Write a sequence for this structure.
């Protein structure tokens, strides 16, 4: 992998990523979007993030793709605490605690 | 702090350093081990600011995949940003063009998720308040991400594997999802997203995720229409 190749990839990825973030925000501006589209867009967060996370959780690279009960438990705790407390950081800390404590006990 | 929308954004963005920093440090370690120079790693994290796609790109570079495929695959991971951009456009569309250009640059997962939740609950905010909140959230998050990348690249593989830093990535996203599950339609959308993403994980270039997102948005919207 030459330096020029690496720089090309970084530049293209930087530009492409910026354009995907700019797409609607920059170009549509305050023109109103149709109600059916807005109804779909209200679910963007819950439609993207769970799908992004599920494969990482079911086939974690760090375990060579083996299902890891501890990771699943920590994830379940983080999700449950998040639903219950409605607080992202409390949820993340709860999940990290379970993961840390579990790794320590199983070590 | 906490009173103005900007102060509130900073206060709510700040704790994200706890989860952004392991993620960024991990990228610094992995990219350095893949053979990228410190300058390349830093520029990468500063202009792309999208962890998942950065990991995907470095992995494919190590595997010796052609340049165009590396870029397209990593961009496919970031297609979700188009949806973020569309979801925030009704709130931020009336803001001045330079502000929208800058906000687009800062629109990472965490910033999007916090902004969307805040806009849904603070219905009395004017456009300027919404803009201020978004910049407030980004203020700690962005330098935290870049700084952590530097630490990871500089400290390298000295971070012990037993810390399971890799778990920071899924954990950060799961923690974001919990508070979003406000209605039955949101729960159904999340469930569809997980199911379709797992069923279509074999599709190359991460397009399974895009399918999952579209199916989940349709499911959520349909539930809402029937309610």
């Amino acid at each position: 992998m030459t330096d020029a190749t690496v720089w090309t990839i970084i530049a293209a990825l930087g530009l492409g990523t910026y354009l995907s973030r700019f797409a609607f925000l920059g170009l549509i501006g305050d023109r109103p979007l149709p109600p059916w589209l807005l109804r779909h867009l209200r679910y963007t967060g819950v439609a993207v993030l769970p799908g992004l996370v599920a494969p990482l959780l079911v086939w974690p690279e760090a375990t060579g793709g083996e299902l890891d009960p501890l990771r699943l438990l920590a994830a379940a705790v983080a999700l449950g605490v998040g639903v219950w407390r409605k607080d992202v950081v409390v949820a993340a800390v709860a999940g990290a605690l379970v993961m840390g404590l579990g790794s320590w006990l199983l070590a | 702090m906490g009173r103005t929308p900007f102060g509130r954004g900073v206060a709510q963005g700040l704790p994200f350093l706890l989860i952004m920093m392991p993620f960024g440090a991990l990228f610094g370690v992995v990219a350095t081990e893949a053979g990228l120079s410190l300058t390349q790693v830093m520029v990468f994290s500063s202009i792309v600011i999208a962890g998942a796609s950065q990991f995907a790109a470095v992995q494919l570079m190590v595997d010796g995949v052609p340049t165009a495929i590396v870029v397209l695959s990593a961009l496919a991971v970031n297609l979700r940003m188009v949806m973020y951009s569309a979801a925030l456009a009704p709130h931020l569309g009336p803001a001045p063009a330079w502000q929208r250009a800058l906000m687009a640059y800062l629109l990472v997962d965490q910033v999007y998720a916090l902004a969307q939740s805040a806009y849904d609950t603070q219905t009395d905010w004017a456009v300027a308040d919404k803009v201020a909140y978004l910049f407030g959230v980004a203020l700690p998050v962005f330098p935290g991400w870049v700084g952590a990348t530097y630490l990871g690249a500089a400290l390298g593989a000295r971070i012990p594997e037993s810390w399971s830093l890799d778990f920071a990535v899924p954990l950060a996203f799961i923690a974001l999802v919990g508070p979003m599950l406000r209605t039955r339609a949101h729960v159904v959308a999340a469930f569809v997203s997980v199911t379709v993403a797992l069923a279509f994980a074999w599709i190359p270039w991460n397009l399974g995720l895009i399918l999952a997102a579209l199916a989940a948005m349709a499911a959520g919207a349909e539930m809402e229409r029937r309610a």
Remarks:
- Chain B touches chain A through 99 residues (CB under 8 Å).
- DSSP finds twelve helices and no strands in chain B.
